[in-house]
């Protein structure tokens, strides 16, 4: 009995200490809902659709507020003006990357997406420069995408107009593009190793978007002590890194420093140039993490956007018909689409932009962190504080995009039917941490979608009015519902 009493007293003291720590720091931070001891505000957040919860909080606390995920405070920025101020005007101050416990287990702060400080700056600069250089090589990135678009069309023809789930084939195309840049080669769409990799990408993206994973990131001790789908994520990441390591070893054995073939070769040459620099960020471990980042990010985000895009075009046959009419008029049937065509195809350009705006793929962005103490909108944001920026609040702003919940390419067209740019279009984020592969992704989305619609009519298995476009997951990223369609050759 005495032992139980002692345990109760200890637990009570811990709860009081937790509550005191949470409340003591709130004087300088933005306002927000009162957190509970230990668990913070997690009971007030819908982990199936975090962005919806953030919108509801913003109506009460304004464009900048504080939430506690467990005992850890996080500043949330909501609305175009506040997001732009944080990521663009104060881009350097908020250029840190918040930690994801599940990601930390796999890349240990390396790579180009989740690294920080000098490491991040040098790896990002190198990655951007190398990707641009490949655009000026023997085969430009545009040519690589066009070649892959041709292969994609040939693969879709093999369906003979029969119903099919497009998940793997739409994932294979962008994956092959990034493979040609990183590894110098592409895979056959039926290659079993390739299909296994694609399966791991898809499985991880779904699991990382589950409510369970949001709980794991809030209470990271779970990762070490409880069973669950997080172990599958770690296993898949390990398998992907093992594949990358195998490719790196092959490149080391056949490297010609005077003739780099791909991204890995360029990185290995950089390592050789800096081999006497003991503080160099260019190591085998960094190469592994950076290649894995580019490999995964360059595949999953684009393939999910393509898959969601075709679903929306099935739902809206009027939009599809207008795009196909424009393709017929500008490109015809006898040549492949190219990026120069885009300036003459305002409706198609608007359609691609609207797909990205509407699906809002990464609704709350990849979290940032303050690299020093910052005064932001009369609040003091301490060094190391996590920052969530709501891209939903920008991409679905009803003043910039009337009826934002409706899919309408007119959001990006002026009264004369010309393409209209919008500062609110930021699916790749903005500022210092915006997506390294933005240029590649924009090219892929335009060329893949126009090539598909140039060659096929899309036929739904159900009435277009009955097609459901609501995502099945909306935590870290939005995952479209599974569906089938028929690719009818034109």
Automatic annotation (TrEMBL):
Residues making up the signal peptide according to the UniProt record: 1-25
Alphabetical UniProt keywords: Endoplasmic reticulum, Heme, Iron, Membrane, Metal-binding, Microsome, Monooxygenase, Oxidoreductase, Signal
Metal-binding found in the keyword field: yes
Entry-linked InterPro entries: Cyt_P450 (IPR001128), Cyt_P450_CS (IPR017972), Cyt_P450_E_grp-I (IPR002401), Cyt_P450_E_grp-I_CYP2B-like (IPR008068), Cyt_P450_sf (IPR036396), Cytochrome_P450_fam2 (IPR050182)
MF terms in GO: heme binding; iron ion binding; oxidoreductase activity, acting on paired donors, with incorporation or reduction of molecular oxygen, reduced flavin or flavoprotein as one donor, and incorporation of one atom of oxygen
Membrane topology per record: Peripheral membrane protein
Binding locations of heme: 435
GO cellular component: endoplasmic reticulum membrane
Pfam families: p450
Family: Belongs to the cytochrome P450 family.
Name by which UniProt lists this protein: Cytochrome P450
